[in-house]
Design brief:
The complex is a heterotrimer of chains A (163), B (424) and C (750). In chain A, 36% of the residues lie in helices and 15% in strands. With 163 residues, chain A is of the alpha+beta class. Chain B is an alpha/beta fold and 424 residues long. Chain B is built from 18 helices and 11 strands. In chain B, helix 3 runs antiparallel to helix 4, helix 3 packs parallel to helix 10 and helix 15 runs parallel beside helix 17. Chain C has 750 residues and is α/β, with parallel strands linked by helices. Classes of the chains: A alpha+beta (163), B alpha/beta (424), C alpha/beta (750). Chains in contact: A-C, B-C. Chains A and C meet through strand 2 of A and loops of C.
């Protein structure tokens, strides 16, 4: 009985409508949270696992030493490496392919790398136009690494204290 | 004093055959050649004398000789270990210089007892004067017909050769010595088999210290009991002590076993003027170091020194006064073992270098707080895990230095300099 | 036999055994680095320290003999802490370069460190670094990784018999390195890679190519010598990448020769024949298998006649085929009604050559107390047999030698007779005479006129006084003018002295060829008669004329002149083959086909194909089968090479038994022994670049003494039969010993 009276009272005073309208009114003055991708981007964790890159040492030498631990650890068999002795006697890859169709972005390759050569960057918005484009070759990986050197260095530095 | 190995030391040309014979030398050997002494008699006499190996381990000589398969016909060897390389030891060289014939006679007797017709005296590479003295004595002995084949018509044959080492401390270890004698690189063999079964050229071999051999003729001439009664229980006879370090008159002293350390120190003229005794290493660098109090309370015999926490070793008493920096001393000792490790087995090859490097770092002022624990731990990891005793010898001083003088080490790590101000 | 207690378990042990042998047998794992079951005990790594009750210190399991009532713990606090501390010591100076180390993944140090190592390093000082020296084309060194276990040193002194590696310096600066700057020269050197527990010694041809976990491993048999060493062929993506030894105590123990280990390189040589080719109007065209085989069939039928009486067909094969291939080819040919079939291409006169059975087990060879080697440098020619002989010598056995040149044996020789080839028969005959006389037997007439020399008496006495002796007859006498006599003399000597015999002249897989009946039938022609006659057609199986024939130019001339129709099956391209053939069929090489090798014991060792034959080349037995089908011959319905083997086993043929007669001829001219150098004996080896780079691979010399050289008017800068002259007093007078990696002599030269 008493409940009924309250309901009638609420219905007549339009209180629920006003409650709803107040949210709308609040949002009318609040700053917008929508980001204008790609001009605007949300912050990403330094541990985000996006597209892969191969890094170089400051002197320009590629880091990868063809130990093939990433290839061994990769749960999706996405990595293919061929190696040989370079003329200067160092161990280097002649082929380093990552098949992005197979890759599950688990980050194990990065974990396994003893020289921090293969990394997963924060970049997630990439595309390719042909089927072959899904395979990142060694050249492409090094290119990604070179292009995003600053970004990679920054994220790795941020993450380093938790490792 | 000076009753056995050094009994002729005050005479003119004590190294000559005539001096040696005038004091009763070669009388035992001649008796043997006449067939008047049986090997069993000699072994019993040696056992009664309580003579223990003078090279450091202190194994009873009579017992050692009895281990040889005496009655089999295969070739056997006696070897004298004159590769005296332990820091602090300088007694064997003086025996070779001043009483070489006693070593020759002792070895010949050993050869007769163990039916070994060939003996080798392995002399340390740096000992040129002792080497020439010994060679000259050997020539005399051969000329007089005391050595050779079927000596003076008897059925006894004994040939003795001298071998000059090439300067490796490790060749003082008996199996490394045997390897070196065979012309190989001086590296200890693993045991068993022991040299008494498989020794030089794979044949049964007994290796004894120079002083042990030199004592044998006198023991047999005067009787085992006489020798035994010179010393104390478990440490029969007298022994050469090389007293070195910060004493006024460093020298070799042949004194009865069991004399108080204090008396020995007095014989050496006491500590340098104005200085106090700080530490003593009683048996050569491989034995644990003792503090002044521990040292002054002990007697110079096997049991007493062991009770004090160290070992008699080769009787090389290194005396240190209060100007000694113990960190520096230990670093120097560690360097010695690092340098002399043969490199054959892992703990010693890698461990001695590690010990030295940590100590060197402390000396350079880069010591860290955990270094002393690390030193102790590395030392104990070497201890007992190596083929020969060199690993143990490197590890033992570390433990005793750190135990007895830990505050000095802690001070050095903290301040980057020595606690001993007037250390030179 | 008594019981000891290990880790609370009672196990049986034999007196004299070492503790580690017992733990290994019962499956208790004790970590170790320096211990190797085929090498002497060094006890220097100290990793196998265990706690023996009653012993104050932990004892190394590898050097501690078991004794009754012994109680051992491999797991208690004392043992574990000793093992862990040794592990730490081993690691402090070991570089952390596992990611680039070829041993990574199969490294004993890595494995043991997983269970005994610590996860943090307490060693903060500088690590030891050691400069490397180049020790040859086969082994790469990274001595900074060395843990001084001295397995390689002990391997050199104990197994290879030459002390090439050794420890110099002492303490921390102890270095394991070759004493000389000439590199490692042993013919067994590759085993050092196997015994090295870390990555200090690794395979040079394999360097940085693959990780151990990437490869598939198949069991196979190496076919370069008479032993048939057991191997594991490791493959990756259809290519042979590495070969390692597989243990088989009755064959090769755990060792293999360098030949067997590194020959795989030739498989990927650019000179491989990869496509069937047919010669149209003098030019070669690559065609399909159908076309090529059709061409073969038509050509054979056209030139050699009816398909059941091809009398003018000649079939020649090299010594490297499998039993199945020999059998099938033989069957095919006999179905075609042809008996002209032979594999003894290098024999000057097949009527006058060695025919001797081998009747000693390899494992018994090391137990003999005397060996007489005739005409062989066993060390380089049959390394694994030499290894057994060396073992026998080390056990106190004696070895006598009758050779025409003094060789660098790695075993102590009791009595070395260096004589000119024509005298070998005489020496053996007079030895036989001494033997017969001293055993009071009748001396045959032929021997009566012989004078007995001192050396003959010596050899005879040794043979007679030994309980277990063996006479080894080698390759050097196959073309001796008295080869048959020598063979018979050896057989008679063996019979009369109760010795076993070992015929090392049956190289490659020729024992299998004999078993398969791959020799001329009753009216068939042997190789030399074929070449001398007008054969209208030939089937040539993996023949490389300049190396395989006794006289290369005569053979090549005979094959190209007659305008015969020649079908060649080869695994490698060869100019001469291309010149004389009409069809070239690419066939599989080693490890690309399944088959059977018959070793000197008569042991059938069957192996599966490790990889597919590259491109269009096919396993040879299949090619022969299809050829037979196309020729409408029935009975070739094999689905698998094992069917062929079954059939071959039921049709085992016996070689010709030679009659026992002796009729020694004398020669006065300079005698030549032509022996291919050890790494040139077959096509695969000749294409293995790393092996060719080694000192043994480079051997190419005609050795003669100065008076022979003077007689032939040669100096040490000249060539003799196309081979550089080396003047040395090691050779018997009037004899030239040629060790060549080039083709055999040609007629003009000879």
């Amino acid at each position: 009985m008493f409940d009924k009276l309250i309901k009638i009272f609420k219905d007549f005073t339009l209180s629920e409508l006003l409650l709803g309208m107040s949210v709308t009114a609040k949002e009318l003055v609040n700053t917008k949270i929508t980001v204008q991708f790609p001009e605007e981007r949300t912050p990403i964790s330094p541990r985000f696992r996006g597209i892969h890159a191969l890094r170089r040492y400051p002197n320009g030498e590629e880091r990868c030493i063809a130990c093939k631990l990433c290839e061994a650890v990769c749960p999706a068999n996405a990595i293919t490496i061929e190696s040989e002795m370079r003329d200067d006697g160092t161990r280097r890859t002649t082929q380093y392919d990552i098949d992005l169709f197979k890759c599950i972005y688990c980050g194990f390759c990065e974990e396994a790398c003893p020289v921090d050569a293969i990394v997963e960057t924060q970049i997630f918005d990439y595309a390719f136009e042909s089927r072959e484009g899904s395979v990142l070759t060694k050249e492409r990986l090094l290119e990604i690494g070179d292009e995003n050197k600053k970004l990679i260095d920054k994220t790795k530095l941020e993450d380093s204290k938790y490792r | 004093m000076n009753e056995v190995c050094f009994k002729n030391i005050d005479k003119k040309e004590p190294w000559s055959l005539s001096t040696y014979e005038a004091s009763g030398g070669y009388s035992v050997w001649r008796k043997i050649l006449k067939g008047e002494l049986s090997p069993e008699n000699i072994i019993d006499e040696l056992k009664a004398s309580g003579l223990r190996g003078r090279g450091g381990a202190g194994f009873p000589t009579g017992l050692k000789w009895s281990f040889m398969p005496r009655n089999s016909d295969i070739q056997k060897y006696v070897v004298c270990n004159s590769d005296e390389g332990e820091p602090g030891t300088c007694k064997d060289r003086d025996i070779l210089r001043f009483n070489p014939h006693s070593v020759i006679e002792g070895m010949a007797i050993g050869g007769y007892v163990m039916k070994a017709s060939v003996g080798y005296n392995y002399i340390r590479g740096e000992f040129m004067e002792p080497f020439y003295r010994f060679e000259a004595a050997l020539k005399e002995a051969y000329k007089t017909g005391l050595l050779g084949k079927n000596i003076s018509g008897s059925s006894v044959s004994f040939d003795l050769y001298t071998h000059l080492g090439a300067g490796a401390y490790i060749c003082g270890e008996e199996t490394a010595l045997i390897e070196s004698l065979e012309g190989k690189k001086g590296q200890p063999r693993f045991k068993p088999p022991f040299p008494a079964n498989v020794g030089l050229y794979g044949k049964p071999t007994t290796v004894n210290n120079t002083e042990s051999f030199a004592s044998v003729p006198e023991i047999l001439a005067k009787g085992g009991k006489w020798f035994h009664d010179l010393g104390v229980k478990n440490s029969g006879g007298c022994k050469l002590f090389s007293v070195t370090g910060h004493v006024k008159r460093p020298a070799n002293f042949e004194v009865p076993m069991g004399i108080p350390f204090k008396d020995l120190l007095d014989m050496a003229g006491g500590i340098r003027d104005g200085r106090k005794l700080k530490a003593v290493i009683p048996g050569g660098s491989s034995t644990p170091v003792l503090t002044a109090d521990e040292a002054l309370a002990m007697n110079m015999d096997y049991d007493s020194i062991e009770n004090a926490g160290s070992m008699l070793g080769a009787g090389s008493v290194i005396v240190m006064d209060d100007s000694t920096c113990m960190v520096k001393t230990l670093t120097r000792l560690a360097h010695f073992y690092y340098d002399e490790s043969c490199g054959q087995c892992t703990p010693c090859r890698e461990g001695t270098g590690w010990l030295y490097r940590i100590l060197k770092r402390i000396m350079d002022g880069d010591g860290k707080s955990g270094d002393l624990d690390l030193l102790n731990n590395v030392g104990s990891n070497i201890l007992g895990n190596t083929i020969c005793a060199l690993g143990d010898a490197a590890a033992m001083p570390v433990e005793s230095f750190l135990r007895n003088f830990s505050e000095e080490f802690e001070y050095y790590i903290e301040n980057g300099k020595s606690m001993v101000k007037d250390n030179v | 036999m008594f019981e000891i207690e290990i880790d609370g378990k009672l196990v049986n042990a034999e007196a004299g055994e070492k503790l580690i042998e017992v733990t290994d047998r019962v499956g208790i794992s004790v970590p170790r680095f320096c211990y190797h079951e085929k090498l002497s005990v060094a006890a220097n790594c100290r990793m196998c320290l265990v706690d023996v009750e009653g012993a104050p210190k932990p004892q190394p399991a590898c050097s501690t003999p078991v004794s009754e009532g012994m109680k051992v713990s491999t797991q208690n606090e004392k043992a574990k802490s000793a093992q862990k501390s040794v592990m730490e010591f081993l690691l402090i100076n070991h570089p952390l370069d596992c990611p680039i180390c070829d041993q990574g993944g199969e490294c004993e140090l890595q494995d043991v460190a997983m269970s005994y190592g610590s996860n943090v390093s307490r060693f903060n000082e500088g690590k030891r670094v050691i400069a490397d020296s180049n020790i040859g084309a086969l082994i790469h060194t990274d001595m900074t990784r060395c843990i001084h276990c001295t397995r390689c040193v002990r391997f050199g002194t104990e197994i290879a018999g030459i002390m090439e590696m050794g420890g110099t310096g002492r303490g921390e600066s102890l270095k394991i390195e070759p004493f000389l700057n000439e590199g490692i020269q042993s013919e067994l050197s590759g085993n050092m890679i196997d015994v090295c527990p870390v990555g200090a010694l690794t395979s040079k041809p394999f360097r940085y190519e693959l990780r151990s976990w990437q490869m598939n491993s198949t069991e196979s048999i190496a076919r370069h010598d008479l032993v048939g060493s057991n191997i594991n062929v490791q493959t990756y993506k259809g290519k042979v990448k590495r070969i390692v030894a597989r243990s088989n105590d009755s064959v090769n123990e755990t060792w293999i020769s360098d030949r067997d280990r590194f020959s795989y390189e030739g498989l990927s040589h650019s000179n491989r024949l990869l496509k069937p080719q047919v010669k149209f109007d003098g030019t070669w065209k690559e065609v399909s298998w159908e076309v090529a085989l059709d061409f073969c069939v038509k050509g054979l039928l056209r030139s050699a006649g009816e398909s059941n009486s091809m009398n003018s067909l000649g079939v020649l094969a090299s010594k490297t085929a499998t039993l199945e291939e020999y059998y099938l080819l033989q069957k095919l040919v006999s179905e075609l009604g042809c008996e002209n079939i032979d594999y003894r291409l290098g024999v000057k006169d097949t009527k006058n050559t060695i025919n001797l059975e081998s009747n000693v087990k390899l494992s018994d060879l090391e137990k003999i107390d005397h060996a007489l080697i005739v005409g062989s440098y066993t060390r380089l020619e049959q390394p694994m047999i030499n290894h057994r002989l060396r073992k026998a010598a080390l056990r106190g056995g004696t070895v006598d030698v009758i050779n025409s040149m003094q060789f660098d044996f790695n075993l102590a020789l009791n009595n070395e007779n260096i004589i000119i080839p024509c005298e070998i028969a005489n020496l053996l005959a007079s030895t036989l005479k001494v033997v017969l006389e001293s055993t009071n037997q009748d001396v045959p007439e032929e021997l009566n006129k012989l004078t007995i020399t001192k050396s003959a008496t010596k050899i005879a006495k040794k043979l007679l006084s030994s309980d277990a002796s063996v006479i080894v007859l080698g390759e050097h006498v196959i073309n001796n003018d008295n080869a048959k006599n020598i063979s018979n003399l050896v057989a008679m000597l063996a019979k009369n002295t109760n010795s076993s015999t070992l015929n090392l002249s049956k190289t490659g897989n020729s024992i299998a060829a004999d078993i398969a009946g791959f020799f001329p039938g009753k009216d068939g022609l042997d190789v030399n008669s074929m070449l001398g006659k007008d054969m209208n057609a030939y089937i040539m199986f993996d023949v490389y004329p300049e190396y395989d024939f006794h006289n290369s130019s005569t053979a090549i001339k005979a094959l190209s002149d007659k305008n015969s129709f020649i079908v060649s099956m080869n695994s490698f391209y060869n100019n001469n083959v291309a010149d004389y053939s009409d069809v070239m069929l690419p066939i599989s090489s080693y490890y690309e086909t399944s088959g059977t090798h018959v070793n000197i014991e008569g042991e059938f060792q069957t192996f599966a194909a490790s990889v597919k034959a590259p491109q269009e080349s096919k396993p040879a037995w299949k090619v022969i089968k299809v050829l037979a089908d196309l020729l409408d011959i029935s009975g070739f319905n094999y689905s698998d090479s094992s069917n062929v083997l079954e059939e071959a086993k039921h049709n085992i043929k016996q070689g010709h038994r030679a009659e026992e007669s002796i009729n020694i001829t004398d020669t006065n001219s300079v005698e030549v022994i032509w022996q291919p150098s050890p790494y040139s004996i077959d096509a695969l080896l000749r294409h293995s670049d790393s092996l060719q780079e080694t000192k043994i691979g480079q051997i190419n010399k005609a050795t003669m003494n100065s008076s022979t050289a003077k007689h032939l008017n040669l100096g040490d800068k000249d060539d003799y039969l196309g081979v550089p002259v080396v003047i040395s007093s090691l050779v018997a007078n009037n004899c030239v010993f040629i060790n060549a990696n080039k083709s055999t002599p040609s007629e003009e030269q000879a």
